[in-house]
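Journal club side-thread
Mid-discussion, someone asked how the predicted structure for our own chain would compare to the paper's figures. Pasting it here so we can look after the session.
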Amino acid sequence: MRPARRRVRWLGRFAFALLVSSALWLLARQTPRLLGRLALFELQSFEVTGTRYLTGVQVAEAAGVTDGASLWDDTGEWEERLRAHPLVEAVRIHRRPPGTLLFEIDENTPVAFVASPTLEPIARDGRLLPIDPALHRLDLPVLRASLDPADERFASSGSLRILLEELQRLESVDAEFRERISEAWLTERGDVGIRLVAPAVTFYWRAPLGMRRLAEGMSALTHAFEAERGTPTEVDLRYADQVVVRVGRTR
């Protein structure tokens, strides 16, 4: 008889614990919805951090935050809409009771201009960025490559993709060299051509360009300037085991 009583008592405690757990779970699920009905938690303001090109108003509009929204509304929908914006790489939304939202944005930054034929800023992944060059001073190289007319958000043509990959590679190979590029293009044979500023020299190479090969080209250019036999205009790295420096003419 005693074992039966203990079993009944244990089942009763288990059922009570299960009931309490279910009630707490339901309460946790319903709390945001219930709080959202309170005027106290109606959105009064929002703050944006991490942006240079996007304004706070643009962030709120892209997120779809409307008048009368609550601090406890589902932020997942706002984040999803923001991630669809070409200038937004990542976003995190934090609540600050009673009525403030904090948008923490990681922006897609422009790495170059692409001529389409007007100059448009482009991100590392080929995403065209809605940045007005008249409002923001952008010192970026110009990539001479055709755009894919079937893709409005991404400039996904093969030639442009190669140029973007080379620019990204140069960030780790020689960041100073990368900063001096004013223009880049592909030749008819698919080789990379770039024009530097200070000095005004054109480089040619076959992608991908490695650190050692670039160092050989820079060394040959330095020697050509020191030789004072004319002004170097081109450094050609397309030939195996040699660097060709052309002096006193353009191509």
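Post-session note: The first strand starts at residue 45 and ends at 49.
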